[in-house]
UniProtKB/TrEMBL annotation:
Pfam families: Phytase-like (PF13449)
Superkingdom per UniProt: Bacteria
Name of the protein: Phytase-like domain-containing protein
Phylogenetic classification of the source organism: Bacteria, Pseudomonadati, Pseudomonadota, Gammaproteobacteria, Pseudomonadales
Protein keywords: Signal
Domain Phytase-like, chain residue ranges per copy: 39-186
Organism: Pseudomonas solani
Coiled coil: none
Signal peptide span: 1-18
């Protein structure tokens, strides 16, 4: 068979492969959240047996969630964050971030939460490209992160734009490897390793970065292409999982390279008519993956759903039919 014919055949069938449907996750429970008046939930983690969330509008607390009669009730855990370290971000980005903080009334903009097996909680600050550790006793301190993280990320085209900075965080159970996600324009993944006195890059900080756009699932009702994004990360059984907001999917990735191994969609459940918002983008902000399924938290930004629900939402999805480690 001639090479020219094979090339033509590939050009014809490759779009069919690209368009092949991925497995849809099944929603097992949906919980409105009470007790977070400011809303804007931005991260979720299951730490031990406790479900925790953070809000990007609150700098001094995280919340413990308890399910009662189909509603998650939030109880605040207060902490005092020291002044954040120098971010290494350019003056223009820092100035716009400062202006936004004056409008919103808070400075740190926590966009994700994760935890290790020792009970330490880690909150990523988008505004300062920094990570706050809150231990089990409630004491808070900023991690000492190598300045090369921001330098390498910016050299790879990430962390260049206001409000498109660090958006996701995950740590391994041993508390020795920390992954961070750049949100968009360009999106990407970075990893840090714990050293005696700092968190540093082993070789390079950046696993990968990419540009491009995602077209949302047809059920969104508005086929508005938007930059590819990450809105959170999770680690489960040695694999890295990314929450891809606009595409309405969770993808399993190689933790050393960031390359995609498999993806699952949650669009069919998220975009039923009663659950839709008047938005041209996805609202999934926080992700946690475990053996039995996945937790996703939505940031509704004060918007009301088609069914009249105004509170923030937490979803519990069952694990895929073949499990998270399916080939």
């Amino acid at each position: 068979m001639k090479a020219s014919f094979l090339l033509a055949l590939l050009l014809v069938v490759s779009p069919l492969w690209a368009a092949a449907p991925i497995e849809e996750l099944k929603l097992s429970a949906e919980y409105p959240v009470e007790g977070v008046a400011e809303g804007n939930l931005s991260g979720i983690a299951l730490c031990g047996k406790e479900l925790l969330v953070v809000s990007d509008r609150l700098d001094d607390r995280l919340f413990h969630l308890t399910a009662v009669d189909g509603v998650m009730h939030a109880e605040a855990e207060l902490f005092a964050a020291p002044p954040p370290p120098e971010s290494g971000l350019p003056w223009g980005v820092r100035a716009r971030t400062w202006a936004m903080s004056m409008m919103r009334g808070n400075e740190l903009d926590f966009e994700g939460i994760t935890c290790d097996a020792a009970g330490n909680r880690y909150l990523v600050s988008e505004a300062h490209a920094a990570v706050l550790q809150v231990n089990a006793m409630g004491s808070a301190e900023w991690l000492r992160i190598s300045a090369s993280l921001v330098r390498q990320a910016r050299a790879s085209g990430m962390l260049l734009h206001f409000n498109a900075l660090l958006e996701g965080i995950a740590i391994d159970p041993a508390g020795e490897r920390l992954w961070l996600a750049a949100e968009r324009e360009r999106r990407g993944l970075m990893v840090l390793h714990k050293k005696p006195s700092t968190w540093a890059c082993a070789g390079g900080c950046v696993l990968f970065s990419e540009a491009g756009e995602d077209i949302p699932p047809p059920d969104l009702g508005r086929a508005v292409p938007m930059p590819k994004d990450f809105s959170d990360l999770a680690v489960h059984k040695g694999k890295l999982f990314t929450l891809e907001r606009h595409a309405h999917r969770i993808c399993r990735r190689d933790p050393a390279k960031g390359s995609v191994e498999r993806c699952w969609s949650f669009a069919a459940e998220a975009l039923t008519p009663p659950r839709r918002y008047e938005a041209d983008w996805g609202l999934a902000e926080g992700l946690w993956v475990d053996a039995d399924g996945a937790w996703i938290v939505l940031d509704n930004g004060g918007m009301t759903r088609a069914d009249g629900e105004q509170r923030p939402i937490v979803w519990r999805f069952a694990k895929p039919a073949g499990g998270w480690d399916a080939p």
